[in-house]
Amino acid sequence: MTSSLSVQGLFAGYGRTTILKDVSMEVATGERHVVIGPNGAGKTTFFRSLCGEVPAMAGRILFEGRDVTALAGFRRVRAGIGRSFQVARIFGEMTPVENVVVAIEARAPENSHGRPSLRVRPRLETVDEAAAMLADLGLDPREASPATILSHGDKKRLELAMMLALRPRLLLLDEPTAGMASGDRRASVRLVERIVRETGATLVLTEHDMDVVFQIGTRISVLHYGEIVASGTPDEVRANAFVRDIYLGRGGRHG
Ligand SMILES: Nc1ncnc2c1ncn2[C@@H]1O[C@H](COP(=O)(O)OP(=O)(O)OP(=O)(O)O)[C@@H](O)[C@H]1O
């Protein structure tokens, strides 16, 4: 199977503090790779460096064989990497449809200045596409209020719609079910599974809920103090004595 993402000897951190130490990870196309680890292990930092928010101090990140280590975040998005955040990043003052319209227009071919050509008034078919995407994800496309009033779960769904509007081939989801009640959480997992099935996208996500981890993951990597201490199939990781000791052995919400 071809490689979607290849992380090779990555070091990254903040200022002089190194958080990620020699992280390597291969993610095959179509894989659903879950990164787990205790609080503060470096999962979010890892995601931030994959999407270009935290620069690499050393090592390489390849996406579909292309070295993206030095590429700015927005260029990684244009290359096909989509990302969601623990706290949904949406335009709170705009309606849900307007939010998705912005994302669709950002996908449009760049103009001669190398920037997406955003329009003052969107095309009707763009609005229709945005409305259809929202409906598909279970959101009301006629909602005329600003997105800031949406529930936490709906904001995450809206963020997902915006990310999908860019038609990414690799989805990076940082704790997609964080802060959700269990009903919402199950619905979210089903939604992510359906999206991955329908789009054929590769998935890398972090998650604390072990039910979600073992339901979604085809491979799991464990971060501990910024280092990968185990990587393998769910069964292999579950059986790993060190992982059980540092992480899985504790009850409740791990980490
Ligand atoms: N902006 C920052 N500046 C300095 N240090 C930071 C910054 N963000 C995170 N850190 C530190 O980096 C380490 C890893 O944090 P990170 O958020 O990546 O862990 P995590 O595994 O995602 O944790 P959680 O499960 O709580 O989300 C922590 O020690 C944290 O304090």
Automatic annotation (TrEMBL):
This is ABC transporter ATP-binding protein. Transmembrane segments: none annotated. Residues 5-250 form the ABC transporter domain. Keywords: ATP-binding, Nucleotide-binding, Transport. InterPro entries: AAA+_ATPase, ABC_AA/LPS_Transport, ABC_transporter-like_ATP-bd, ABC_transporter-like_CS, BCA_ABC_TP_C, P-loop_NTPase. SUPFAM superfamilies: P-loop containing nucleoside triphosphate hydrolases. SMART domains: AAA (SM00382).
